[in-house]
């Protein structure tokens, strides 16, 4: 049988509290009026280019195409294009996207992609490793996050930034480990990240709380993850709905069947873009073996018009859905 400690470590590799209080029957003090005021919606502008940056939970969204259709419809006539630059297992230091070199190489690669894309809005989600590593490295992490924000703002002057917390983990039946302590770490990390986001002039989305916050003791009755960490299709449907709500927008009242055509086109666009910015044979095209196949690098920009065509189709399908809703 696999030991729980070993499995916990494995999940930490795959993935990349409000502190537990003693029982107290004394009611909490009333929050000040300013704290209870409704949060203003994030101000998207027509023509915005939103770039998603983060680790596993963001990258895997392109498997299901649940966010872009919901956000597009929630924005109504406002047109926003979306590009997913997330990388599973990545950190604010650029570890995963560094390939064979140091983390700095990963940040350099990100800088080049940002220069190419010229985003007007960036949504970041980092820090899921804190669930397993604890918060002892939090000061260094926040310094790394601050440096990452500086890099993004240098490459995309005037960019507006959204920082989202990692969502909670789930307790599943054995042999999956108990992730209660990991969620306590995420809850405390969320509190620190909220303060950090405020100090960096960014829009903060508490994805942890929107997805239910600190889970109740015991095993999850209706799992939305495969293994406690990685969300399923149904999980991403909820993740995306809650993220749209966290941006102060109203998710569309529309069935999955009605979203089907739009999701299909988003999946197509996301695959084209993935092959554009992250080709499988990048070492041969641009790296130390480009002397073998570097002549084929000229084909990579040929994805751009195909991506633009997919964007246009997405906007066309969105307009049809909005028109149909108005006539009902």
From TrEMBL:
<dbReference type="InterPro" id="IPR051532">
    <property type="entry name" value="Ester_Hydrolysis_Enzymes"/>
</dbReference>
<keyword id="KW-0732">Signal</keyword>
<dbReference type="InterPro" id="IPR013830">
    <property type="entry name" value="SGNH_hydro"/>
</dbReference>
<dbReference type="InterPro" id="IPR036514">
    <property type="entry name" value="SGNH_hydro_sf"/>
</dbReference>
<protein>
    <recommendedName>
        <fullName>SGNH hydrolase-type esterase domain-containing protein</fullName>
    </recommendedName>
</protein>
<dbReference type="Pfam" id="PF13472">
    <property type="entry name" value="Lipase_GDSL_2"/>
</dbReference>
<feature type="domain" description="SGNH hydrolase-type esterase">
    <location>
        <begin position="60"/>
        <end position="237"/>
    </location>
</feature>
<feature type="signal peptide">
    <location>
        <begin position="1"/>
        <end position="22"/>
    </location>
</feature>
């Amino acid at each position: 049988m696999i030991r729980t400690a070993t499995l916990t470590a494995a999940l930490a590799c795959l993935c990349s509290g409000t502190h537990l209080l003693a029982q107290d029957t004394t009611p909490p003090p009333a929050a000040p009026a300013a704290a209870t005021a409704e949060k203003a919606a994030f101000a998207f502008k027509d023509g915005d280019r939103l770039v998603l940056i983060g680790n596993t939970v963001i990258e895997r969204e392109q498997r299901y195409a649940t966010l872009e259709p919901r956000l597009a419809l929630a924005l109504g006539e406002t047109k926003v294009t979306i590009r997913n630059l997330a990388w599973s297992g990545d950190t604010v230091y650029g570890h995963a996207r560094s390939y064979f070199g140091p983390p700095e190489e990963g940040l350099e690669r990100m800088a080049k992609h940002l220069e190419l894309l010229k985003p007007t809005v960036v949504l970041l989600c980092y820090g899921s490793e804190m669930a397993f590593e604890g918060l002892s490295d939090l000061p260094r992490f926040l310094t790394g996050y601050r440096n990452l924000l500086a890099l993004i703002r240098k490459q995309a002057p005037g960019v507006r930034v959204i920082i989202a917390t990692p969502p909670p983990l789930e307790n599943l039946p054995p042999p999956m480990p108990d992730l209660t302590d990991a969620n306590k770490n995420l809850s405390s990390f969320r509190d620190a990240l909220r303060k950090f986001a405020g100090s960096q002039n960014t829009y903060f989305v508490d994805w942890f709380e929107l997805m239910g916050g600190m889970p109740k003791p015991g095993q999850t009755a209706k799992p939305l993850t495969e293994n406690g960490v990685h969300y399923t299709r149904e999980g991403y449907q909820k993740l995306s709905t809650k993220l749209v709500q966290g941006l102060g927008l109203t998710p569309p009242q529309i069935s999955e069947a009605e979203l089907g055509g739009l999701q299909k086109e988003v999946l197509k666009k996301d695959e084209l873009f993935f092959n554009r910015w992250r080709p499988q044979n990048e070492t041969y095209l641009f790296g130390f073996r480009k002397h073998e196949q570097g002549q084929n690098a000229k084909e990579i920009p040929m994805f751009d018009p195909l991506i633009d065509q997919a964007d246009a189709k997405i906007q066309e399908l969105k307009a049809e859905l909005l028109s149909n809703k108005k006539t009902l």
